[in-house]
Amino acid sequence: MKGACSRPLDNNTMPGHHLILGEVADLITGEMLQDTHDERYRQEIARMLIDLKGYRRTDITPRRPLTITVGEKKAIVPIDFLIRVEGIAGMIIRFGPGSLVTRHRPSLAVSRLAEPYQIPLVVITNGEGADIVDGHSGKIIRKGLDNVHHRNELRQWLKTADLEKIPSERVEMESRIVYAYEIDDACPCDDTVCRLPCR
User: Greatest CA span in the chain, whole angstroms?
Assistant: First the structure.
């Protein structure tokens, strides 16, 4: 995401609201990141995926930028973790402090836009609790970070997953949902998302 945002969320020059504690090396990529309380949670999630859930670093794409287009408006929304097993995107993890329930719908929408097909599993977490949601039904199937699918479980899940292309009408609807939740309704000092200039 570094350098991807050509315009802040609004015209304010207010910095992000996160307390910066220094720098931390990303566990997945080795990239130096701002050390914030939120980033510490993300690094703990990354450690769990590698040490406890059997994922390889090459399976995990952190901070995957997702470009959202609604009419003439465009924005970039980061996906905290996009996880592929044998080349297939099988799970996304979205982190944010506070309530999990309020982030279900935009996270499901993101899971329908990150790839041409529905990503089967969506994990919504605040770093303490987690809801693991079936991407197709939108229903919670597990709760808690301890119950995030192991790599072998995800491989099995993907063997029967429906990976049909999402229709363009659905893509447009889901894009509007993400834009409404993540851009229009974002905190003015949120520096993780950005609007792109209109052409």
Answer: 48
Q: Determine the Cα–Cα distance for residues 43 and 27; give it in Å rounded to an integer.
A: 7
Q: Could you tell me if 1 and 29 are in contact, meaning their C-beta atoms sit under 8 angstroms apart? A: no
Whether residue 15 is contained in a domain is answered as: no
DSSP 8-state code for residue 119? -
Q: Is 155 within 8 Å of 85 (Cβ atoms)?
A: yes
- pLDDT per residue as tens digits for the range 1-12: 444 454 444 433
Q: Which residues pair with 33 in a beta bridge?
A: 24
Indicate whether 14 belongs to any domain: no
CATH number of residue 53's parent domain: 3.90.1570.30
Q: CB burial class (10 A; 0-12, 13-18, 19+) of residue 90?
A: buried
Q: Is residue 18 part of a domain?
A: no
The predicted model gives 7-30 an average pLDDT of 66
94 in Cβ contact with 103 (< 8 Å): yes
Rg, Å, the chain Cα set: 16
Residue 16 falls within a domain, yes or no? no
* pLDDT tens profile 109-153: 999 999 999 999 999 999 999 999 999 999 999 999 999 999 999
Residues linked to residue 84 through DSSP beta bridges, in sequence order: 89
Calculate what percentage of the chain has a pLDDT beyond 70: 83
